[in-house]
Amino acid sequence: PDPRNLVPAPGYYKTSLTRNGVDVPVWVWETGERDQDGEPMEDIILHIAVNNVETTADKVWGQAERVALWATEIDEAEYRYMIDDADHCEKYAPDDAKARPYEPIDLTKMRPITPGG
């Protein structure tokens, strides 16, 4: 299908922002009323928040295509956990890949995993 015609359904998703990057939470929602058959009664406006930041209007369609093509649907609880986890990493673990979602994962910057913790 033509990616320009792909629109994600409202909901919660996760996707990476770069190749070999961590997954970030995505929320897609619409504003505008629909009738009981689901037909728009007025203009429907698509909104997308990526990593808890609403995408600006000029970037919505690029993000919509990415979500429609590559994102995995998740539930609201996982979405909220991912938001909280990313916030925690930004504040307390800046070297964690979740604190830098626009960069590929760099294993040389990660703490080693040792037996027992």
Secondary-structure blueprint:
Blueprint (H helix, E strand, L loop, with lengths): L10 E6 L6 E9 L13 E6 L2 E2 L5 H11 L1 E3 L1 H17 L25
Antiparallel strand pairs: 1-2, 1-5, 2-3, 3-4
List keywords for this structure.
117 residues, alpha+beta, five-stranded antiparallel sheet
Describe this structure in words.
- With 117 residues, this protein is α+β, with helices and mostly antiparallel strands.
- It has one domain (3-109).
- The protein has helices at residues 60-70, 76-92; strands at 11-16, 23-31, 45-50, 53-54, 72-74.
Please sum up the structure shown.
This protein has 117 residues and is an alpha+beta fold. Helices cover 24% and strands 22% of the residues.
